[in-house]
Amino acid sequence: MSRASILPALFLVALAYACGESSPRADGGSRDGATVPTPTPPTPPTTPPAPPSTPCDDGAPGDICCGGEAVDPQSDPDHCGECGTACGTDQACVAGECTCNCDAQLTCCDLACVDTRNDGDHCGACGVRCPDGVCANGECACSGGALLCGGACVDPGSDPANCGACGAACGAGQACVAGECTCPLGQTLCPEGCTDTRFDPESCGACGNICPPGSLCIDGSCRGCGCAAGLVCCGPACIDIARDPANCGACGASCPMGVSCVDGACVAP
Question: Per-domain residue ranges for the chain?
Answer without folding.
Answer: 146-182, 185-224, 233-267
